[in-house]
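Researcher: Last one for today. Full complex below.
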Amino acid sequence: MPRFLLLFPAILLALFALELTPPGQQWFVAPWTALVAQVSIAAMKLFDPAVAAAGAMITSTKTGFSVVILAGCNGVEAMIVLVAAILAYPAPWRYRLVGMAVGIAAIQALNIVRIVSLFYLGQWNRELFEWAHLYAWQALIMLDALIVFLLWLRTLPREARGPLAT
Amino acid sequence: MSANRAPLSMPGFLARTFALAIAFFALAWLALAPLSLATGTVAARLLEAISPVNDARLRVRGTELAFEVSPSSWAGRDAIVEVPSKAITYIGGIPLFLALLLASRPRGTAWKAAAGLAVLVALAALGIWCDVRLQLAGATGARGEALVPLAAAAREALALAYQFTVLLVPTLAPVLLWAAFDLDAIRELSSRQGFAGGQ
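Model: Here's the assembly. Have a good evening.
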């Protein structure tokens, strides 16, 4: 457990600082955010043809309402937390890689639901949009990361469960 | 596991967490003004304690905070810098923490809830302090001089701390606090038996 308690914050801070550097922003965050916007658009176009994306901005061509996906809304921070937790936990690399891949997919899937829901919520009720945007969804995404981590721990073989073995 | 608690199952825990989260998020939205006042007051005291300012007065306008700050370097002259901030950005973790804690109900839930609340308010205040201090560092007088100067390296460090307190702390801190207060719950929920049930 002490190993995890030391490694987790160290990896978390390192990844977070890396994310904030200009190269991190240019080569990872900006393209990732644009990709999130594109996937969100593709999901919305399944039931609403009146949406368009320009970079990280999603616009309703019917109402003119726009949202911009910024830091904190692209799921990157939750991904960083999950990756740091998985890397810090003493588990075989095969389990770590699968956990990170599945976990990132789970976080981003929920993040797409968040963006789509906020886009329509914002057109309907601004106060509710604020509530969901700044309050509920932020927490739900982190809860998602926690659940994924707990489920990942369950997949580990007993001998690799280390500090949390019961 | 706590002596007075039945073993946790993942489905039961999740169902309770979601139900409680909805209730606590609604309650916290209703209590936004007092929560903003509490975090803003701590942030104002932090400003006075660890920033070069003589006085930091707080005004709460609905959910918006406004800090009226008189810089130390302007002592003897009447300078007030008004800096806005939004407490809501920093206190979103409080309902999540309470939902997780009440969903797992460890021994000593009441004092753990109170202690966690105090820590989260302090962390939110720290986030607001970073926000306000950064804005103050950019405030200039009529001749373009910095009113509350900050060295370049300190500004970089503060910018990183601000990003950390705004992007990670509000959602990560409640989860870590809950885990620290109820490690048994983590053990139970991450065990294979925990998924099938036990409640």
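The first helix of chain B runs from residue 10 to 30. Residues 84 and 198 of chain B are 50 Å apart (CA to CA).
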